[in-house]
Amino acid sequence: MKLIVDENITCGKEAFSKFGEVHLHPGREISNEIVKDADALIVRSITNVNEELLKNSNVKFVGTATIGFDHIDTNYLASQKIGFTTAAGCNSYAVAEYVMSSLAYLIKNNNFSLEGKSIGIVGHGNIGKIIEQYSKALGLKIVLNDPPLKRKTVESKYKSLEEALECDIITLHVPLNKNGIDKTVHLINEKNLNLIKSGSVLINSCRGPVVDNQILKARLTEKKDLLTVFDVWENEPFADLEFLQSTNISTAHIAGYSYEGKINGTKIIFDKLNSFLKTEYKWQPPLPKLENPELKINSSSADQFLTEVFNQTYQVEKDSNQLKETKSDSPKGFAKAFDLIRKNYPFRRELLNYYVRSSVEGENSDLLKSFRIKQIPGE
Question: What does residue 120 show for φ and ψ, rounded to 5 degrees?
């Protein structure tokens, strides 16, 4: 069996070699010529999988080690009876921690406070539910928006997009739907951007085209009245550099790039390929221990808790500085640098690997539990 695997999939060769001969390739360079005699294709979000890529090939299984699949022509795969799976849920905690680290940065550097604030969570899937869990623990007022779930559940907790956009913090966690009743391309657009009040925070860590980048850039240029956190961009990796420089936090589509998020993606696709082939190969992902997992938390408020936790674990500003300081003489050069940042992303662990020594119960204990930080008896 021959497998074509994106070279950036963590432990891709180690895991999928159980099934056969693995060939690693850069995701943007995977072509019809490369896949024509392959039996399986394992990609990430940068490879468009469609008829042009797979026509006259031997591919019988496609897996994407990502939660989104707007880069996959699922109708074509179904028409050709090609097996398909995503890695839904693999990096949900990583993205949620990215959002919280970004809020910690704004608290430290932009005179922002969570006290008395509301959060509009647009998209209530795996990531949205974790953001909701964190937000409850932090004492935020929560407004949920998810039209498909509203129709499915008829639950009153799901509010309109307009209500979500009136919150102090708006964080976007929707798939990229190009058509239909739940179209999300330019979900944030010229008609509704004005609903976001001055001083609010807008976070996009789902897909670039969910926000009309040009309309938002115009507002940031004219008013400079919003705090913005963007991990994804229209025409990525050919991002609008003026827009990129105008946001408070700008990163290279790495919100979900924790070690756990990436290794979970590999494991999910490994298990799904086993199921597809009716095989029983075994592979357990390596989970190296942290050298310094103990945190010092002395928080008396939600603001202080977030800043203390993420000062010691994941500082999103380092990722933002790297992207903003990237120099290039051409859009093509910047795009290449963007991809290199993703390829060479540093080792980042999720909060479940950390602990605090404390016997204190109460508010801080609940926060620690909600953020998956272990609490062990103090000395």
Answer: -100, 115
Contact status, residue 68 vs residue 232, Cβ threshold 8 Å: no
Q: Which stretches of the chain score pLDDT less than 70? A: 359-363, 379
Nearest-angstrom CA–CA distance, 206 and 48 = 17
Specify the amino acid at residue 118.
Answer: S
Question: Could you give the residue numbers annotated as active site?
Answer: 207, 236, 253
What DSSP character marks residue 347? P
Structure tokens at 193: 């951007």
| Per-residue pLDDT tens digits for 63-119 | 999 988 999 999 999 999 999 999 999 999 999 999 999 999 999 999 999 999 999
- Encode pLDDT of 333-350 as tens digits: 999 999 999 999 999 999
What span, in angstroms and rounded, lies between the C-alpha atoms of 202 and 200? 7
Which amino acid type is present at position 314? Y
Q: How far apart are CA 30 and CA 109, in angstroms?
A: 42
Pick from 344, 340, 372: nearest CA to 356: 372
The alpha carbon dihedral of 366, 134, 265, 334 has a sign of negative
CA distance linking residue 290 with residue 353, whole number of Å = 7
Handedness of CA 106, 303, 204, 201 (dihedral sign): negative
What is the tens place of the pLDDT at every residue in 291-321? Answer: 999 999 988 799 999 999 999 999 999 999 9
C-alpha atoms less than 13 angstroms from C-alpha of 179 in its C-beta half-sphere: 0
pLDDT at 363: 59
Give the pair of three-digit tokens for residue 307: 């800043």
Closest residue by Cα to residue 377 from 353, 356, 358: 358
How far does CA 373 lie from the centroid of its chain? Answer: 20
Half-sphere exposure of 38 (CA within 13 A, CB side): 26
Give all strands of the β-sheet with 61-64 in edge-to-edge order.
21-25, 2-6, 40-43, 61-64, 83-85
Residues contacting residue 47 through CB under 8 Å, at least 6 positions apart: 6, 27, 28, 30, 53, 71
| DSSP-assigned states of every residue in 221-264 | HHT---EEEES--TTTTS--HHHHHHSSEE-SS-TT-SHHHHHH
Cα 180 from Cα 100, distance rounded (Å): 32
The residue behind tokens 């509301």 is 118
**Whose structure tokens read 């998020």?**
261
